[in-house]
Sequence to fold (241 residues):
Amino acid sequence: MTLTEVRRELTLANHILAREGFLVGLGHISARHPDDPGRFILSRALAPNLVSVSDLHEFDLDGNLVGGSDIQGYGERVIHAAVYAARPDVNCVCHGHPIDLIPFCNVGQPPKPVTHVGGMLGSVIPVWDNRDDFGDTQIIVVKMEEAQSMARALGPNRIMLLRRHGAVVVGNNVRETVFRSIVLRDNARIHMDILRLGEPSILHPKEMEISNTLHESQKILERVWDGLVGELGPGIADKLR
Fold:
């Protein structure tokens, strides 16, 4: 994708995930620069539902702003920087605090794949606890050493829970990461409902593999993305300028 296309999709992603309750006032989503893997694109510190293309700026893998502007960035931009530095395969990073997931974050027990699209979560969801390495902190991840510890805990996986905090979701591109974030939120909600009724029936590894082949295909990602964009309404056009 071109830089213009990535910036457009990243703007839409902010609004979609705000509407879906994954990024509500707080949280953020970024994309690796398509022409320079040593940079990523992220909004200035702003509520996700207010982000426009002009609010997007470039940062290096130390979390430093590049390009000469002097905007205020998110304190947690180091999360994105550390993940991109540790994972050359990742092209999009999202960090949010969806309310349906917070109970799982608090107890440190990730939701299990219980839906037909649950394979998108991956076979392992690690849990990172800032207290293990850093004791009592302000919980949000604003120091590079904390972010690097978190990135090591993420390892090769797609999703990680931050104890008492939220989640980090990564993907090959913006559309995949947005869909995976929504699936995570929905799967957590459904898992909790199932526990009120009985024992969850968890997807088998082979079922997850087969499901992924379908739901991470370009055709399905495009269909889901078009539907999510359509729900934003006509007013979003002004944000894309």
